[in-house]
Amino acid sequence: MSYQNLVSRVVINAVSKTAGATASGIIDTFVPGCGQARWLTLDVMASTADVVSNKPTVLKLQEGETTDATSMANISGFVGGTDFTIPNANTAATAVLQNSYKFNVDCRARKRYLQVVYSPQTTQVITAIANLAMSGGSPTTAAKANAMTLAEG
């Protein structure tokens, strides 16, 4: 495998969860042939909610040395309601900012496995995409971006 600047992974693949259910996904920050990722940008997206107060009850990142979800520990700075305010939910499908949450993580100070956890207050479809950066700078080709197409501007 050749060196890649950016590796994208689907962490949660458009799953519908009812009120109080949990959507979660584990991210392996080690990329074979490249090593440990330096940076992670994680995008968590949810469909519109019934009312603005239906923001997630749980929105957080955890870390661990194994993929066993029970061994994961919360990461300070990345726990909604404790370290940051979870904003009210968007209810309009045409809203400029849908229910989208972004985490930028310095992986150099983290354990190998990260887990995102999301619990909605109403039925929502949740998706999460991780972009692992292996070095500084952005990828210069589609192959290095691990994508079919790379558009720049």
Strand percentage, roughly? over 45%
Shape: globular
Q: What gap, in angstroms, lies between the N and C termini? A: 28 Å
- Low-pLDDT segments, ≥5 res: none
Strands across the major sheet, in which order? 1-10-5-8
Number of helices: 0
Summarize the helix and strand pattern as letters.
Answer: EEEEEEEEEE
Helix content: under 10%
Features:
mainly beta, 153 residues, four-stranded antiparallel beta sheet
Describe the fold and architecture.
By secondary structure, this protein is mainly beta. It has a domain at 18-123. It contains no helices and 10 strands. The strands form 3 sheets. The chain has a 4-stranded antiparallel β-sheet, with no helix packed on it. It has a 4-stranded antiparallel β-sheet with strand order 2-9-6-7, with no helix packed on it. Strands 3-4 form a two-stranded antiparallel ribbon. A hairpin with an 8-residue loop joins strand 6 (58-64) and strand 7 (73-79). The protein is globular and about 45 Å long. The model has no long low-confidence stretch (mean pLDDT 85).
